Each structure stands twice: as C-alpha cells, then as structure tokens.
Amino acid sequence: MKKLFTLILIIFLGQASNAFDVVYPRKNIVTINSPSTFFIGSSNPKDMLLVNGEKVKVHSSGGFAHVVVLDEGENKFVLQCGDELKTFIINRPKKVTGGVYVPPKLIEYEHKKEFLTSIENAPLRSTPVDVGINRMSHFEKDIPLTIDAELSNFYRVVLGEDKKAWIAKTNVKAFEGSLNSPAVVSGCDRADNDEYFKFIFHLDKKTPYEITEGETFTLKFYNVKDCPDNTYIFNFPYKENSGTQKLAGYSGNYDGNDFVLKIRKFPVTAKNKPLENIKIAVDAGHGGSEAGAIGCCGDKEKDITLSIAKYLEHELKKRGAKVVMTRSDDSFVGLRERVDIANENESMFLISIHGNSLPDSANPNEHQGTSIYFYYNQAKSLAANVLLTMTKQLGTQNDNIRQGSLALVRNTNALSILIEVAYLINPEDNSMLIDHHFQKRCAKAIADGIESFLRN
Ligand SMILES: [Zn+2]
Fold first, then answer.
1. Helices (H), 285-348
2. How many angstroms is it from 174 CA to the middle of ligand 1?
3. 386 near 419, Cβ under 8 Å?
C-alpha cells in the first residue's frame, strides 16, 4: 500500500514538474537591487522554453535556472513555454549619487561607566560590528562590565590593561554603583564523572570571561584581583588529532557566583559500533511558516530537510545512538529553541540539515554540491569527515567546509555542523534532493561520516 502510494506520488510529482511554473522571482512585479538575477522553475523538458527569445536549457527533471542581466530601472521579461506566456517586471533601483559617508566617531569617556548585561546570550565581540566570527563569548544576564568608550551602536568593554572588547548598546543597561571592583577567584573544585571533566571555580562575584580553543583550551576570567593584567587563566590540556584529549563539546556558565566548566570526555567507543549510546541532536532546517528556499520544481526546503532528518534519525538509532529531533513535523521552531533542545539533551553532536540557495548576483548553474559549516574549531574535523563520506557516497561536488556564524553551530555545547546537502536552485542538484532514494543515501553517508570521526 505504502509502495503504491509512493508510486502515485512519484507519478504526481513527475506530472507536477512538467507544468510550466516559475518559483523565483516569487511575484511578477518585483524590485531586485542587483546587477543580475535568475529565473528558477520547471517546465516540460520536451517543450522549448524561451526567456526574451533566448533558449533556456531545461534539465531532464523539468527544472531550470536562467540568469538575466538587470539594467537600472524597469526590466521586462517574457517567458514562453509552448503557447504559455509569463511576463515579469523587475525593477532595479537607480544608484543614488552624492552624499558623503561620515564614518562613526569613537567617543572616549573621561570616567569609566558601569553596566550589566541585560539579556541572555549577549555576544561579546572583538570588533564593533555585528558579524559572526568576531564573537568572543556569550554572556548570561547581569554580568558586570566596565565601559570606557562608545562607537556607533557599540560600547567598548575593558577586560584588562590592553584588552578591550565590544558589546551592543541594546544588550546592556547602566548600573548606578560600583560593581566593578575586581573579582576574587578563591579556588577551583573538580567533580568529574564518566561523561565530563567538571571544574567549579569559586568567585565572590560574576566577572567577564572568555573560552578559546587554540593550541590549548583556555578559560580566562577578566577583572580579577591579584592576577597579571587582572586576568585569571586556566588551561585545559588537550591535543587535536591525538589520543590525549580531543574536544567533544563543552559548556561554561555561572551558577550563582560559581562558574561551572564542563568538558565532555571523548567517548571510548566499540570499533564495530562507534555510535552506541552517543547522544545526537538532529535538526531539520526551517519548518511551519518558514519554508526556506524553494527548489526548481516547487519543492520546499523545509520538507526536504525534514525527510532527510527522519531518515538520519532512523539510521543513527539503528546504529545504537540516542537521537533527539528538534522537530518531527511541519512546525515552526525558533533557532534558540533548537539549540536549547540539543543542549538540554546533553547531545555530543548537533547535525543541522539544509538545502542551499544563492543571492541574486550569483549563477545557480555554476554552483553545485555539498558544503558543511562549523563555527568552533572542535567541530572542524567532524565537518571534514562528514563532507568526505557524503561527496564520496553521493557523488555530489565538494563545495567545501566553511567556518560560519550560524545560530545552529555557535553557542552550542555539542560538536555542531550545518550541512548544505546540495543546491535547491541548481536543476541537477535539485533533481537529487527531491529523490527519496538519494535522501536515504544521504542519511547513511552522514552517519558514516560521524562514525569515521569517532574512529579516527
Ligand atoms: Zn536553509
């Protein structure tokens, strides 16, 4: 019965993809501020498709992607397939000339000011701009900060004699009083268990901190009494790619005035069943009101990601892993909520599934393949292992691993990666993405990649 249903579905989808349909641009009259854009859609591959008289290549699945150049002002495009016509008006705004750019000015204060973080997960940044890779820490609410200057939307935070950082003005509130006398670190207790190394630092008050993964794993407390440059430094010995101690996720937060640092022990796994009892969070990108990208044949990213995520759940459970899903149906789940689900489950891995798309200025016919994002160094080798098994087993192009500041890979306690399986708006990639057989193989390749990371 299920097979019959699938067969009917395939026939139905097959027919649907033969109908002449444009999925991007999403409306017939749009404004696009780019020197070029593209038409994404599907038509019957047997019919000739023309855009302003120019012949368009249609993939055997029916999908097409066609780049057009945009002049400033109004651009008219007529798409013709058989005797069906579709007209699009794309407005490209004219460049505004004149006006002088005035760079924001640094205002240094005569007297330092005292502030408290006013939200949870307030990012501390190394530069006064809202970009991803400059995040140094994510602070809880009520962390005291000394501020000595401001620039545009940011305050400058004093961490030491020469050490400064930046925080968004909207993430802090002024504090009347003298919070920022140096903190005292009076000691550190160990409370290891089978799963974690656990360190409890005793402080007399909260103070800014930073955790870095470089040559060593380092926790620093700033504005601390009786330490060189007011900085208390704790190094945890580990070595990437050696048997000593590989990072497998960690967390660090205040519990009252104590700071609790938990570093997951790299699991000793059975060679033949490396995933046994490993906790994994699987995240199907988008969902509910948020469809994500739309593929050439009209398929929504949220449905493709959910389908692959479910195959992955099945594959991982089969291999003995303990899986938590951030969503199991077509519902909307916030980004922070997804990370919380993984953290609460104490997942060692967080695997987020997506399909890729491109900005207007790119050419969808020139971008193909699998790419994997990580944020923390500790997840880089996982990303590389999974990319290798995916490209090998699926035959997708290697579109590289990349460090990227995406909500699902940063501020997580797990080893987190975000997989762009393939491009929804590339006709060839799209024809694979919508194929359930490919989705199943994709789940297997991801599971194999995680296993190879654990084995190496
Ligand atoms: Zn996505």
1. 301-318, 335-344
2. 38
3. yes
Which one of 62, 92, 122 terminates a domain?
A: 92
Q: How many domains in the chain?
A: 4
Protein residues with C-beta less than 5 angstroms from the ion ligand 1? 285, 292, 354
Kindly report the length of the chain: 456
Distance 356 CA to ligand 1 centre (A): 6
Residue 253: inside a domain: yes
Question: In Å, how far from its chain's centre is CA 336?
Answer: 12
Q: Which amino acid is at 63?
A: G
| Global confidence as pTM | 0.88
User: Residue 12 Cα, ligand 1 centroid: separation in angstroms?
Assistant: 26
Residue range(s) defining the domain that contains residue 66 = 17-92
Q: How far apart are CA 58 and CA 39, in angstroms?
A: 12
Q: Are residues 30 and 64 in the same domain?
A: yes
Give the span between the Cα atoms of 336 and 407, in whole angstroms. Answer: 7
Which one-letter amino acid corresponds to residue 280?
Answer: I
Å from CA of 440 to ligand 1 middle: 19
pLDDT tops 60 at residue 390: yes
Distance 32 CA to ligand 1 centre (A): 21
Percentage, residues of the chain above pLDDT 90: 76
